[in-house]
């Protein structure tokens, strides 16, 4: 099927869906360029355009610091994920060892437990360690995460055992097999992991919001949440119109880097994901 | 490829593993019990230091937004009076952070802004400020004191008062020959609404709130007007009362006569029906004032504020809707200095003038609430200026006079927001004609008692 | 010597996870488990209540209706997302698709947008009186729909938000699964005269089943834990119709009713575990592809 030329019907459907998918982003970006009061009063029409929301946002919130902190967390936490999760996934997919299923159950449990319930105990632990308001608190809890291990396990399980046994016969060490046989074969899965990890870390806010207090350590999503508190929930406040303007400006700016990277690199990302080297 | 995608046995064994872990957990439980380290609430005493000798650094939290900027400017004034106190003013997501930070007890701020509704629930983690507020007590709004008092102790420095007002279209009333001064009771309001509807059948003059949370907050304003609230100071539910029944019956009557616009607060439908003449009366808190100032176009300049009607002839002409205060955590490093700041902002003239008076953010002053400290709320000495979007009306005078009549209430129970699932939703059913006042009371009371109070 | 190392190797490979789990996962987990048997609101008063929190939830109509709401959302989201995601992935992987780059960006970028800001679009576009969607419906002669204000439509409307936000995620996962489908298999199938649909069903689907199983488990989890969407767009209403399991849990935690919140979390874990098990079993093929 993937070798067939798509028909006109498919193009019409895809185009309509693409418009639907892009409209909310178009709305958010175009609204961020409208006078704040207009966003609420006439949200669907565009009249006068202004950069006021951006000016106010840059003056009011530390979005630059937010970017730098997010980049730092992304680098370290993402790096740990990319190094350690494939290893763990490989162990769970291709080794038999005592307690394997019990241990994998623990991995799944950490995946399934809602973050919300862990906030207070984790905060208490961070307090005991003296780590509240530090980069460690942002980076370490939840690093080498279950989601990525689970994904790697699923990806690596698809590799034929013969391939690994062949490596073993060739006399490669256990890590050598992983490095020389497994990793090249799962490049597509790794590419997907890189994309997903980036997005998960980039979008994470539940724990970061409580883990750090001062401006210096705020990630991008913490900056956004701090702005958003005035427009979600109760909406009791005089300034939710102006805050809407700033929130949409900050939101537009926040999605920009990933958007640009994605547009420029989508070919590489997706070809990476599609770079199959497994021959049935 | 003979294994199933994940492996059913893996799952089952995993579940067993979890069970084993749970067993170990209960062993470890003994050394990691929640609670336990409880301390009696500590009382904060007045700092001995004079203005010039007060020295140190404090971290205080605020919500982000315009109010943050206003406080920023007011803090600069504080630094002029207390030059040796450095204030680290931080904008944080208070709702998501403050309770968690208080419970964990680490890196707590020296002071924070907080909704009055949240303070009672975490009083244990806050300084008892009774002695410090004592000198100002007689001159502070009884309502604000009552919501900040738990078991006879005051835990919040009362900041803003948010009196309910009757917002009305001056031009429409004028044409209908209605003198706003005659709207003395809620029955008068219904009568006026009927008159207006007769002249212009397109109108549905009275705003009724469609979001459950805000409609319940609005209900509490109407109840506060009659000197009651959802629970008494001991936490006993008092929904089943004449006062609440009166409110619900009034709503039911207004709905039956098709006199209401049932719309969610300042969303599109609301803004449009406010601006096209469908809505004429909005009984709402003072913070509605920003609608004509920022959102409305056609009817900008045509809205005015009056005191709310009374429920009974001669009754109170206002009730509070929302509001915030300042708290000082029991684990604050420099609680005395935080008190000096809040004392300055709430009780000292340069402080409250800096907050409410004209400033860079609000050139005419902050007009969405009034001070709860009565010397600051003097009808003759306005802090914010008359408002053009209200046809130049002196909102200050109307609001502080209304504010002065607000009766005391009781601390807001910690489960208030959760009770919206019952009471707020049932109010919506009432507004949609699906429930009678008696049903709203009995059903909400039963569920709140069972799910929230009995589980406290 | 060699055998010994093989025996230790897997433990070494999973050690980083368990080191992090031991340091930052175990304590919170035990603590939360213990909390689920207590009544505690963050102060010094903590009471051991046995199974009371669990019993309360299991006999509470609100708890069950939150599960019911999430179950309906699950039915609205997961099957559709699997089918649409797979179709999308196949199309986007097709080298003969023109404007492929544009379509890829269009379907995947919602995944990078900040949810709180984007949720506002739903409030605006699905407004009953002034929304774009009803305007378009009226243009083609259809009546207004109370998208966010009727208990019948509120769940589908929120499900759309979730689908919009996460279909890019599904496509990425399924694309990675597709790589295992070598082109030669299709050509062989075409020569055999197998229809396109049959090719898709008998070749593509079995080969991406691991990715699909992963996707189902992750999205089951995400749907049952979802709370930001309903909190921002509908505040759980109208009449609790969008109070999802995640939002119901959030409400407990947000009110610092930590014991009930913890019990609620563990009940959710059990449920999601069970649901994942069932869906994974259903995805297991009856006969294996060689």
From TrEMBL, chain A:
Q: Which GO terms describe its biological process?
A: transmembrane transport
Domain (ABC transmembrane type-1) ranges: 67-265
**Would you name any one GO CC term?**
plasma membrane
> Sorted alphabetically, which keywords does the UniProt record give?
Cell membrane, Membrane, Sugar transport, Transmembrane, Transmembrane helix, Transport
* Membrane protein topology class: Multi-pass membrane protein
Which InterPro entries does the entry mention? MetI-like, MetI-like_sf
Q: Which CDD domains match?
A: TM_PBP2
Pfam families, from UniProt? BPD_transp_1
Q: What is this protein called?
A: Sugar transporter
Upper lineage: Bacteria, Bacillati, Actinomycetota, Actinomycetes, Streptosporangiales
UniProtKB/TrEMBL annotation, chain B:
Q: Does the keyword Signal apply?
A: yes
SUPFAM superfamilies of this UniProt entry?
Periplasmic binding protein-like II
Pfam families (alphabetical) = SBP_bac_1
Major localisation: other
What superkingdom heads the lineage? Bacteria
Using the record, list the residue span of the signal peptide; answer none if the entry has no such feature: 1-28
Report the GO terms under cellular component. Answer: cell envelope
Keywords (alphabetical) are: Signal, Sugar transport, Transport
* Transport among keywords: yes
**Subcellular location as annotated:** Cell envelope
Annotated InterPro entries: Bact_solute-bd_prot1 (IPR050490), SBP (IPR006059), TAT_signal (IPR006311)
Which family is this sequence assigned to?
Belongs to the bacterial solute-binding protein 1 family.
Q: What is this protein called?
A: Sugar transporter
From TrEMBL, chain C:
Known InterPro entries for this protein?
Answer: ABC_transporter_permease, MetI-like, MetI-like_sf
Q: Where is the protein localized?
A: Cell membrane
Q: Which domain of life does this protein belong to?
A: Bacteria
Report domain ABC transmembrane type-1 positions. 67-279
Q: What CDD domains would the database entry show?
A: TM_PBP2
Sorted alphabetically, the Gene Ontology cellular component annotations on this record are: plasma membrane
UniProt keyword annotation of Membrane present: yes
Which Pfam families does this chain map to?
A: BPD_transp_1 (PF00528)
- Segments traversing the membrane: 12-33, 71-93, 105-125, 162-186, 207-227, 265-283
Q: What is its main location?
A: membrane
Q: What membrane topology does the UniProt entry give? A: Multi-pass membrane protein
Q: Name one GO biological process term.
A: transmembrane transport
Q: Which UniProt keywords apply?
A: Cell membrane, Membrane, Sugar transport, Transmembrane, Transmembrane helix, Transport
PROSITE patterns for this protein:
ABC_TM1 (PS50928)
Q: Which family does it belong to?
A: Belongs to the binding-protein-dependent transport system permease family.
Indicate what this protein is called per its UniProt record. Answer: Sugar transporter
Origin species, per record, is [Actinomadura] parvosata subsp. kistnae
